[in-house]
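Why predict the complex rather than its parts? Because the way molecules touch one another can change local conformation, and only a joint prediction can capture that. The input here totals 1052 residues.
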Amino acid sequence: MAITDRDMGAGLRPSLAPDGWLAALARRAEAVVIPLGALLAGLAVFGLFLLTQGKSPAEFYSLVYKAGFGTWFSWQNTLSRAAPLLLAALCVALPARLGLVVIGGEGAIVTGGLAAGALAGALAGLPGGVGLPLLALAGGLAGAVWIGAVGALRHYRGVNETIASLLMAYIAIALMNHLVEGPLRDPASLNKPSTAPLAEQLRIGDMPGMDVHWGFAVGVLACIAAWVLIDRTTWGFAARIAGGNVRAAQVQGLPVGRLIVGFTALGGACAGLAGMIEVAAVHGSANASLAGGFGYTGILVAFLARHNPLAIIPVAILLAGFEASSGLVQRRMDLPDATVLVLQGFVFVAILVSETLYGRFRVFAPERWRAA
Amino acid sequence: MEGDLGLWAIPLAILGGAIRVSTPFLFVSLGEVLTERSGRINLGLEGTLVFGAMSGYAVAYLTGSAWAGVLAAAAAGSVFGLVHGVLCSLPRVNDIAIGIALMLLGMGLAFYFGKPFIQPVAPDLPAIPLGWWAESPQVQAALRVNVLFLVGIVAAVAVWWMFRATRVGLLIRVVGDSTDAARAMGLRPAVIRTLATAAGGAFAGVGGAYLSLFYPGSWNEGISSGQGLMAVALVIFARWNPIACFWAAILFGGAGALGPALQSVGVTEGYYLFYAAPYVLTLGVLIATSSPTRAMTGAPAELSITK
Amino acid sequence: MNHSPLSRRAVLKGGAALAGAAALAPLPQRAAASGNLTVGFIYVGPKDDFGYNQAHAEGAAAVKAMEGVTVVEEENVAETIDVQKSMESMINFDGTTLLFPTSFGYFDPHILEVAPKYPELRFQHCGGLWQEGVHPGNVGSYFGYIGMGQYLNGITAGHATQTGKIGFVAAKPIPQVLLNINSYLLGARAVDPSITCQVIFTGEWSLAVKEAEATNALADAGCDVVTCHVDGPKVVMETAASRGMFLNGYHADQSALGADKYLTGAEWNWAQVYTDMVRATMAGEPIPNFVRGGLAENFVKMSPLGPAVSDAARNQFEATRAEILKGGFAVIEGPLKDNRGNVIAAEGQAFEESDVALESMDYLVEGVVGSTS
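Output of the joint prediction:
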């Protein structure tokens, strides 16, 4: 990173009081400058990796830009891929407010999608305006029960939520496969066992003027709502206290159990909704493709966003953009499909390591501008 | 019919499956015990396992020696562990998050460099025919025990003894239970944790080599179906006890053999549910043995996920 | 929308930054006019999996060798929005006009979603799902009758087995897989009607450890010849060879994995199919929307017979193959019951390989140990 406290802090010191607008800007800038710098550092390290492979980093990054963000098609590609990641990341970020590490969002996506697929027949006669909300409710509820159960096990039985959610994810996938190939199978789905297809009016379409389904908008709204919940409500405040110290929260009379079950269920509802949207917007029925790994990518998104729901939006888009470029990179540079995984690995390590830089630069801390 | 064992085939298959399938779980969970006892969690061992599988296979193919492959996998694993350890020694860097990122990086690098090794056939690790006394080919097959399985048992006992009776074990435990106490004793927690994580990574790498060099015995991108992640979970299940890790791995491996074995004796309905048996069983035991009031016995106090 | 000036300008702008002219992808219309054809292949797994994807990639390699053709490929593309965007990326950035998305699950909804947006391009899908009047006219289906190959596999297995039990590692109980299992057993029963076939479903198309466990379970159950229907047969073949079983390959040639235990294998011959289709496209001739073929049409071929195949087996194998090549041969032929005792073909009733009734197969024939759900 080019900016250090010596470069800027020295010049600012005499003229500005720490409580001016510049100070406010400086305080906020830290959370943007550090991750951006880390992103560039990660990209640079990966560029060195490419050089050792005899490939041109300049060509690589221009391809990534082009295929991820460079054209209107690229943006549509990127946003379509980001849609499920937004909701999947909330399944990690919301429980994280209470200090819980939930890594089984994939299970909630699968159960949510399965619930939507299973109800397709029963809701087929309803108009879309009624049927779709019911479908979304079913998907969200299924996910909420799945991850809420993990929270309940944690609070009432002391079962570790990380391992329980992972186990529950494997169980959800097995259940889904069993039901989709057995009791819920549409006999017409011959070589790809699926539930009965959703009626036309229950399908989720594209947003106007673009080839991106409404799931993206739902995801963005959910992130904003989650931010409001955490940052602007007493529930969010209580959750943060409980996340910091359970005993202190209990002493203060906070309903820790309800908070834990509530936040895990809410996270699960988001992932369940993601599953429902996959069914209603992409697949048209529930089948094995539901276990597409979005739940696991969501973990990454949430951790990169430091569990901040608003930060999830740009992080998910960045990640989706990398993934959108994978094909073009394969085709043009004769690189394996795993190249983008390696790129993501380097970038994420760099961004996570940059956590250590917070508070180290005086430029971001106006109260220290006068000191020294 | 000759060689037909009837229903005895099921316990035999579970035994054989337990021996065959459990080794990667055993190695990864032993490695994770080392790391977690020092107060850190490395969630990235899945990536280390996969990279170990690839590098082990590649080196075995290139040198013609399966054991050279195992060594290479251990070395590669310890490098991943070292990176995790060093990065997490920086203030405020989250060990869980770094683990997830390294899982991605490990898998990415393994797939990237592994492409040329999908097709070639590398030498396998040798197996010891412990079933030589039996007439039945099924029993012989079930007791064809890989050397690494035996090494894993020895390692489990050794790690257990190390924690119980050696200075190194004590140092790791002190660091894992209280950073402040360790500092007061003049120890350097970050260094000890980093070394423990590197050693843990080496174990996970060997677990990967078992996958690619013995069972199933080939390198491809689908070689691991989450064994590394599951093994980390089994550590909590095993309450950070190396001997319990062995039993957890055996239980998990044996339960995994249930599905195919039941189908082979004609129980064919609902096989997905049988395949989920290891997960259901683990969850069930976990629920039964956990308690909301007392802290998890054996849990290192400095471990972030159990705090 | 993707052909709008905006998108084109953006493509050119991005391209200027790149080394080489490859970035200046011509739009589809241009490509057709210049006589140079860009063909895209998309695989669901790695293209060197010794199996389903490798078979397709070998076909793509044959196309690559043709004059005036550029081939672009992508592997490990999931049956989600991934494949939709991969197709569009090949169209928008590479000027691909003929696409081969090869996985069965790519068809509905993914190809059906993308194809109507690009009516002037051609989408060829492997699987035989296209229906006149139901699906877009610029989509085509092709598939091979590989069940006949499994029948021939079964003949070699029937001669090789000592225990009278042969094994089958299968992914999922879907019609194509069930037809293969049934054909394999019926081939073996053409040698010895008392032979049985044990099937184990792994539940996934690609799951290494489970495939190895299934193979071991078959060996433990006394099976001494094995074949499979999973995406990558490598693990099954290597595990079976280590248990001393004879092997019948599937999808691609796996003789390198089994040495002298490899009897023969049922392989796809996509090189033939793909080069034919590309040649027709370049000549401006239409490709039929629905193409299927078997051994006679060179859609499917057999691996060379291995050293363990006896003379008697070789003779019956060759005679049956000649019979199949003549046409009119039926594997599912009455009287035949399924393994629950229901009659599936009455005396005198026969289902030839091209019979559509076979495409909704939901039974395992008598002699197969296993169940469809």
